Amino acid sequence: MSQTRGLEGVVATTSSVSSIIDDVLTYQGYHIDDLANYSSFEEVVFLLWNGKLPNKTELETFSNELVANMSVPNEIFNDMKAYPIAEVHPMAALRTAVSQLGLYDQEADEVTEDAAKRIALRLQAKIATIVTGFARIRNGKEPIKPKDNLGFAANFLYMLNGEEPKDVAVDAVNKALVLHADHELNASTFTARVCVATLSDFYSGITAAIGALKGPLHGGANERVMAMLSEIGEVDQVDDYIQGLFDKKEKIMGFGHRVYKNGDPRAKHLRDMSKKLTGIAGESKWYDMSVAVEEKVTNDKGLLPNVDFYSASVYHSLGIDHDLFTPIFAVSRTAGWNAHILEQYADNRLIRPRAEYVGPDTQKYIPLDERS
Ligand code: ACO
After folding, report:
1. Taking the CA atoms of the chain, what radius of gyration do you get in angstroms?
2. I need a surface site. Which of 43, 87, 178, 322 has the fewest CB within 10 A?
3. In which element (H, E) is residue 18 found?
4. Which atom of ligand 1 is nearest to the CA of 264?
């Protein structure tokens, strides 16, 4: 039996949701650059779930349905207030709340196509409310209901901050959501598919996926990029700091990728946004520092930035708490997780690979009282 460490290069399923071929990322055949430049997040979610871009009427109906489904049972917010809130990471809160959300969905155990699509919609809508609600509750504030006249990105910022956001912030969050929405068989998506391939329910799949996204080798990297930049502090400290990480053989967060070897096509969009937004915020140093880190890491190690690297300074310049960076990733990636779960249910077979046994040879059993 042969095995591939970390399943590198293993093609584990077919999928029509998104593809990475020769370092080009497409969602349902549409180039990520076109979607990032011209589409709303709602359009992209519709695309990922239905295999086609919506027309105007379909988009309006779908967008309205999303806002109409954003409310979350009060019990979930009440329970959040009882969490040991000062120590709870928002990703742990999100994982718990999404699992809890399933308790209040009467259709939760339905795996028919129609029910699954309704559940996907509810989850996509409510996850934004959970992330923003938790962010407010831990600051002693009440969660805010969405506004009917705002789109998904605008409502996210509105529910987070309690005031209608500026267009520049809405555009930035919208683009970030589009860029993170799906990414073929990444670790969290694979996790979701493995979970629901047992014919377990949607909420279990998304809860499992959130757990996988939380780790620093996956979505958790964006928060750690900001921690690194904060620790570096100034552009002239970059080289020494990064050299120190090289010397300690530590990973540089936000660099490297299992699939992309010539660069992550999403990174350039986030780099441009970082330049613009840090400039508007009067804090260009975060962009300048990021560029200096990129130069050092790329020149010395040949590693290129991934989606997480410049998203850190983008979110920071929007005034978003650093530990909310990964939850925002989860809000976006729920679109992709949902699409993959729908695809898995539509043509399901249990996912059950093998392991190459490397343990001891057959051993003679010794009863407990005879063991030394
Ligand atoms: N910093 C320093 N060295 C690195 C980095 C990095 N960020 N990434 C890879 N390397 C080195 C490894 O040390 C290893 O070197 P070696 O062969 O001398 O031991 C070699 O490159 C291969 O690295 P692996 O970790 O085996 O690559 P893998 O494909 O398993 O991992 C991963 C990919 C997890 C993204 C890795 O590059 C990494 O840990 N990056 C930092 C964390 C990060 O940014 N994660 C977000 C990824 S994007 C996303 O999930 C949304």
Report:
1. 22
2. 87
3. strand 18-21
4. 48
Torsion of CA 45, 278, 165, 182, to 10 degrees: 10
Residues 231 and 292 grouped into a single domain: yes
Contact 274, 324 (CB under 8 A): no
331 falls within a domain: yes
Respond yes or no: is residue 264 known to be catalytic.
Answer: no
The amino acid at 35: L
3 state SS for 153-179: HHHHHHHHHCCCCCHHHHHHHHHHHHH
Q: List, for residues 186-223, the tens digit of each pLDDT value.
A: 999 999 999 999 999 999 999 999 999 999 999 999 99
- Can you tell me the mean pLDDT for 88-100? 98
Place of tokens 């005031």: 163
Phi, psi dihedral angles at 30 (to 5 degrees): -90, 130
Nearest C-alpha neighbor of 189 from the set 27, 21, 67:
27
**Same domain assignment for residues 175 and 148:** yes
pLDDT band at 117 (very low <50, low <70, confident <90, very high): very high
CB neighbours of 324 closer than 8 A, spacing ≥ 6? 90, 131, 135, 160, 315
Instruction: Specify whether the CB–CB gap between 256 and 303 falls below 8 A.
Output: yes
Residue 369 lies in a domain: no
- The rounded percent of the chain whose pLDDT value lies above 70 is 100
Q: Which residue among the candidates 180, 183, 257, 269 is catalytic per the annotation?
A: 257
CA of 33 to the centre of ligand 1 (A): 25
Pair 294, 309: CB distance under 8 Å: yes
Query: Is the Cβ–Cβ distance between 218 and 251 less than 8 Å?
Result: no
Average pLDDT over the chain, rounded to an integer: 97
Whether 196 and 257 share a structural domain: no
Tell whether 184 and 255 lie within a shared domain.
no
Is-catalytic flag, 308? yes
pTM of the model: 0.97
**Which residues share a beta bridge with 26?**
19, 31
Full residue range of the structural domain in which residue 243 is found? 221-317
Whether the Cβ atoms of residue 315 and residue 224 lie closer than 8 Å to each other: no
Helical packing angle, 167-180 and 41-50, nearest 10°: 20
Q: Are 36 and 179 part of one and the same domain?
A: yes
Q: Which two structure tokens, joined as six digits, stand for 250?
A: 């530590």
Q: How many distinct structural domains can be found in the chain?
A: 2
